[in-house]
């Protein structure tokens, strides 16, 4: 998001955070679902999306427009959040859509946080991403944009029923729709990072040839926390092809100390002689 859009989203996100400090988890989750429904309406109706983000139109007028459309169809808090978004400034109509969808996801994460389930949701999203990544058939089925979204959502529910928190299942369904224009796997990763950020943590994606012990993972997390000045949530991926050592990705920082990387560097150096 550009500057003006970022400020408008922040205003709505601050309102959500204030609401989420005292509202019941179930109510916050309902607000999240309703905001995602608002995002779906904006996605299907480009003329409405443009009208609600038109810089030539007064912000109060835009806020009243969304109120008139949603009144009686969503809860009071959703109505206030949607009107806050519509009344803000937007660099492009697409950024209003992205903001509505992101705010819905943030509300779902806030509901998990309120229920003390956020750490579990973060881990479940990551582990499901690993399961999908390790199964080409499943990955293809869930990423198939030709297949009806409802059909893919039913597959997700069948796989996760009784094995994951309801918020996790709902977020995976949102990822199936291409959250923020991302691929399914990229959407899951972004949600993992948003979950960690809500817990004031950074995510470190660690790839190793064999699983780290609990003690090794704790020590690595402590070192990374000291390096970044923030608690770090370590997410392990086991890949025997790296042969040994580990690679660590934190944001855009990649530390690759794998045996495979060293072998590739050696081959490259020899080929240049």
From TrEMBL:
Cite the entry's keywords alphabetically: ATP synthesis, Cell membrane, CF(1), Hydrogen ion transport, Ion transport, Membrane, Transport
Task: State the superkingdom.
Answer: Bacteria
What is any one of the record's Gene Ontology cellular component terms? plasma membrane
Report the membrane topology from the UniProt record: Peripheral membrane protein
- Give one GO term, molecular function aspect: proton-transporting ATP synthase activity, rotational mechanism
Can you say where in the cell this protein is located?
Answer: Cell membrane; Membrane
Question: A Pfam family in this protein?
Answer: OSCP
Q: Which NCBIfam families does this entry report, sorted A to Z?
A: PRK13430.1
Role: This protein is part of the stalk that links CF(0) to CF(1). It either transmits conformational changes from CF(0) to CF(1) or is implicated in proton conduction. F(1)F(0) ATP synthase produces ATP from ADP in the presence of a proton or sodium gradient. F-type ATPases consist of two structural domains, F(1) containing the extramembraneous catalytic core and F(0) containing the membrane proton channel, linked together by a central stalk and a peripheral stalk. During catalysis, ATP synthesis in the catalytic domain of F(1) is coupled via a rotary mechanism of the central stalk subunits to proton translocation.
Its family? Belongs to the ATPase delta chain family.
The name on file for this protein is ATP synthase subunit delta
Recorded name of the encoding gene: atpH
């Amino acid at each position: 998001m550009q500057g003006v859009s970022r400020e408008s989203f922040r205003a709505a996100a601050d309102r959500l955070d204030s609401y989420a400090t005292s509202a019941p988890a179930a109510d916050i989750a309902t607000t999240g679902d309703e905001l995602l429904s608002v995002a779906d309406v904006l996605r299907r109706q480009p003329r409405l999306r443009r009208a609600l983000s038109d810089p030539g139109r007064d912000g109060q007028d835009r806020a009243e427009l969304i109120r008139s459309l949603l009144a009686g169809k969503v809860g009071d808090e959703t109505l206030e959040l949607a009107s806050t978004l519509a009344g803000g400034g937007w660099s492009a109509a697409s950024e209003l859509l992205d903001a509505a969808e992101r705010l819905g996801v943030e509300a779902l994460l806030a509901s998990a946080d309120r229920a003390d389930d956020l750490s579990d949701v973060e881990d479940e999203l990551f582990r499901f991403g690993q399961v999908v990544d390790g199964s080409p058939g499943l990955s293809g089925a869930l990423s198939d944009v030709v297949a009806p979204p409802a059909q893919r959502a039913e597959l997700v529910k069948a796989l996760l029923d009784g094995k994951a928190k309801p918020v996790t299942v709902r977020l995976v369904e949102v990822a199936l729709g291409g959250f923020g224009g991302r691929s399914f796997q990229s959407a899951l990763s972004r949600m993992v990072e948003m979950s960690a950020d809500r817990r004031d943590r950074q995510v470190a994606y660690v790839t190793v040839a064999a699983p780290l012990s609990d003690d090794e993972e704790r020590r690595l997390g402590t070192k990374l926390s000291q390096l970044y000045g923030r608690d770090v949530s370590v997410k392990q991926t086991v890949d025997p092809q790296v042969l040994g050592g580990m690679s660590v990705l934190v944001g855009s920082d990649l530390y690759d100390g794998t045996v495979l990387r060293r072998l590739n560097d050696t081959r490259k150096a020899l080929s240049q002689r």
